[in-house]
Amino acid sequence: MPAKTDHRLTIRFTPQEYALLQAKAGDTALSAFVRKAALGEVAAQRAKPLRRPKADQRDLAAILARLSLHPLVQSFKDADRDVADATTTDKLDTCAALLEDVRAMLMQALGKAP
Asked: Which among 18, 34, 93, 101 is most buried, taking Cβ atoms within 10 Å?
């Protein structure tokens, strides 16, 4: 395994200095802002790390993708439009049952007992 090539540098700031840095950085992460300020264009050449989701994140993403296709979504939309309709109660009961199923799937993906 190759040695880690990154090095950490710790710098202490007063609360006023820190607030000034945050204001100047705007939406940019402070570490990226300070790196760019100190190194200029060399900092732009830094390779961005690849973000690899953990297995449980992939499971949760799959569940969320399935939710968008689930009849639950359409049932809620229908129930919202047809509030005065006689079948609304049945649709809401169906939605409640589907929510219980979704909850169980999410708990399983998180490794928790339902």
From this structure: 34
